[in-house]
Backbone:
């Protein structure tokens, strides 16, 4: 059995979220810096700037699903319902960011590779990752029993995250069209400073956006659980 | 000095519009679902305090 909620009754006020405001401002600053203050790459042209959306979205998706797996494992150990709520929130936000990865990738691939999509390892595994976590959300919606839902979802969340190292290493393991990592690699980042600073700003901005989204989604899950508890009393 | 805009600017614009639209739509969905959840909890709390046993929709 899952333990009862440890939370106080969630707040019923719906005010302005300061963290969300900060995240939105950081994202807008990233967009302006990428558009106006970052040079156009010589070979790929302006389409290269899609990278400032695509790479941070991929980083956040990996972070989100990695945290789903960790909180799922901790849930199976501690049976604390807050961990399940966090996993549920992080998975949903991760699916949103993976959707952005899967849309911006082809929009970069068409002008640079000459094709929207190719069934190479990294692209295909990223699509599978999206399917696994969409399945995770569908599974959660299909199960009525709170404890069973949390338990099954934790197992699927852990198994799904096993794809992440394969996706990251796929560019080394198999022949692929996808570029190799230019920041998350053992050697120095292979980008000029002006582009590197824009990319780092983008990583910070979209990580903040992830935290703001998860915070709001967690609150939503707390409100739902509180209402369900009242309804079943 | 103005930089020349390569022909693939349409893909760049489409990517930024699509990504920002997805994030904005998700933020809006959180807002709407949050308001609905608050309303549901308020209704259930009011029913509980007034002693009725009806379920909120």
Residues:
């Amino acid at each position: 059995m899952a333990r009862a909620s440890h939370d106080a009754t969630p707040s019923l006020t719906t005010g302005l979220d300061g963290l969300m405001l900060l995240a939105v401002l950081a994202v807008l600053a990233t967009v302006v810096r990428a558009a106006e203050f970052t040079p156009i790459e010589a070979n790929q042209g302006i389409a290269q700037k899609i990278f400032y959306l695509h790479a941070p979205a991929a980083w956040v998706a990996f972070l989100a699903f990695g945290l789903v797996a960790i909180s799922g494992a901790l849930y199976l150990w501690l049976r604390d319902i807050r961990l399940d709520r966090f996993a549920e929130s992080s998975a949903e936000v991760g699916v949103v960011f993976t959707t952005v990865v899967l849309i911006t990738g082809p929009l970069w691939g068409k002008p640079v590779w000459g094709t929207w999509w190719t069934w190479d390892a990294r692209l295909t595994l990223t699509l599978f990752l999206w399917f696994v976590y969409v399945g995770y959300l569908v599974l959660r919606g299909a199960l009525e029993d709170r404890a069973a839902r949390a338990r099954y979802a934790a197992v699927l969340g852990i198994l799904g995250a096993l794809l992440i190292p394969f996706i990251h290493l796929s560019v080394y393991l198999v022949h692929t069209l996808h570029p190799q990592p230019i920041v998350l690699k053992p050697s120095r980042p292979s980008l000029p400073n002006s582009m590197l600073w824009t990319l780092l700003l983008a990583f910070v901005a979209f990580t903040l956006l992830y935290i703001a989204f998860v915070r709001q989604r967690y609150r939503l899950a707390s409100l739902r659980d509180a209402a369900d508890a009242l309804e079943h009393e | 000095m103005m930089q020349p805009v390569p022909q693939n600017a349409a893909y760049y614009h489409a990517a930024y519009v699509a990504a920002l639209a997805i994030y904005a739509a998700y933020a809006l969905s959180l807002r709407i679902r949050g308001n609905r959840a608050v309303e549901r909890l308020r209704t259930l709390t009011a029913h509980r305090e007034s002693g009725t046993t009806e379920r909120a929709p």
